[in-house]
Target: AraC family transcriptional regulator
Amino acid sequence: MPIANIPEIYSQEKEVSGDLLVYDFKMTNDVVKSKVNLSMNMFSFLQVGKKQVHFADTSIAVNSKQSLLLKKGNWLWTELLDTEAIYYCKLFFFSEEKLLEFLQKHTKSGSPHRDEIPYFVIENDDYIITFLNSLSVLNTAPSDYTERLLLVKFEEIMLYLLSKYEQKFEFYLYSLISKEVSPFKKVVESNVHSNLKLEEIAFLCNMSLSTFKRHFTLEYNEAPGKWLQDKRLQRAKDLLQEGLLKPSDIYVEVGYNNLSNFSIAFKNKFGISPKEIY
Model:
């Protein structure tokens, strides 16, 4: 039985941010106990058919009246057609980074990190049905707006489920956060939005620059320079969209020595200058 790496097999079909992805999954043949390596947390909004997921020490089965929020990990799942000989669900993937940003923005930082079972059952209602219909706009929206729309939609469904399930859902969201982070990753990710250079971050990791680069590529499957630049430019974009700071206020904070270099890198990344956002 081959292992399906999800959402990687879907994200190749769409040019979207690696932090958020919506995918329409349809099939016309029953799939029994497929092996799945789920590398991101995932909403499975079931609309037609049945689904059963097997975890290490439990399992859950849902029909089209329910949906699931699944924790990333290695799971077995079974997908069954309904009487119309079709199976259909909308999958909404989100990174831990986006989850952390949401929790910091909308919940109390002191919420306990309880160990929960690796799934949360969602009862489909009129609001969720309307929400799922609204996701179809992402297929027709200009690509420049897709990433922003995804973020808005992610916050919308998370806020709605917080209001619907209250503390139970909040505790579950905190349980999705990785408890074990390697010292290397801890240093890297705590300095993502700093203005430190690669050599300086390597020093904090007690590594030479060449060793740091090799280790980084093994951990993140990407060169550190590009990874850090993308993260910092996205942070700059988020700050500018809030409308409180000018490009001249933030370029040092996101790792650039002068405004000109920052503006060039920003335009190369997003196709517009930082002044056009502000």
